[in-house]
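Show me a record, fold above all:
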Amino acid sequence: MFSPEGPTARELAVQALSSVERGYDLLAPKFDHTPYRTPDAVLDAVATALAAMGPFDSGLDLCCGTGAGTDVLARVCRGSVTGVDFSAGMLAVARERAAPAGPAVSWVRADARALPFTSAFDLVVSFGAFGHFLPRELPGLFGQVHSVLRPGGCFAFPLVAPPRPGSAGYWALLGFDTAMRVRNALWRPPFVMYYRTCRLGDVRRELTRAGFRVELYPLPRFGRRSDGSPRVRLVAARRAPVPAGAGGPAQPAAGSVNS
């Protein structure tokens, strides 16, 4: 699970008893050596799928952490790339690891629930961040993303199918979430990190309510479950283009792909 370069048990305990922001500030120097970082296989699969939808111009990595998602944006965006996170420690590591030969990346410290942009991006991506938001926060979060996308822009993120009830994975995630709820009931400040709150049906409903048109694409390299459903999907939520006659000609979405 953790490489030798990863955090020690004591460091993880200190992080778990901190706030989310402080915890990630502490974890940042060793974050890329933990299982919390999105695997390269997922990043590559998303980049391949987005390349078929693009090209895009400007891109935003929401809750960018140490910048793994900005590498995906650099592969599919022709223009500017921006990473935003509320952890100064994670942003510091992201700046250090940014590839010198790639496109220039702007790093912005901000809360995803109050983004300091207005209709500035054609593509927004996010990797592994939604467990840090309570279900009641999703409408506001998705509303913020909708507001920073240009008409026709796309909000894309991978979503892993939940483990089957009764499986080892199911009990592991249930146990983790239960432990976090007990911790947050007994200790302040809270550390919001849950694995079972981001369900496809809920996400799709809230994206639609925020004004997105939602499309789902299987990521083939991860295969399918016994019932034929994809193990990992790419959720692609598009902001509607400007209709013809409403301030100019209709703007097509930034590329398309057949389902």
Observations:
- Residues 1-36 form one domain.
